[in-house]
Amino acid sequence: MSILAMVNAFLCLAISLRILLFTRTTEHYNRYISYTAWFICAASFYVALRTIYGYYLTVDIAEVILNTCFCAALYANKGNISKIFKTKKEDEHENNR
User: Is residue 71 pLDDT above 90, yes or no?
Assistant: First the structure.
């Protein structure tokens, strides 16, 4: 396993754990954001597992850069997917406060 593959596995594991450990406080529930978070969490954990077990064979530098940016955005927003993927409904809700 290359260093690039290990870094990618660590980033994917960090993404899935941050989404998994997110607790909603004041934001209202949005079903589509929840489904999106669940799919991202499952997919990133699956990539991490496949890399650890040696089934994920090719890792590109662009993939690592993309996962790094997404992981940084996720941790900057404390795991809140809805702040990364703002919808029109989210914008209307913030304007009505």
Answer: yes
- CA atoms lying within 13 Å on the CB side of residue 48: 17
Which residue is it, tokens 């809805």?
A: 82
What's the DSSP call for residue 21? T
Q: Are 51 and 1 in contact (CB under 8 A)?
A: yes
Q: Which of 71, 72, 77, 73 is nearest to 24 (CA)?
A: 77
Write the DSSP assignment of 41-59 as a string of letters.
HHHHHHHHHHHHHT-----
24-65 pLDDT per residue, tens: 876 678 888 889 999 999 999 999 999 999 998 889 999 999
Amino acid (1-letter code) at residue 89: K
18 and 74 Cβ atoms separated by less than 8 Å: yes
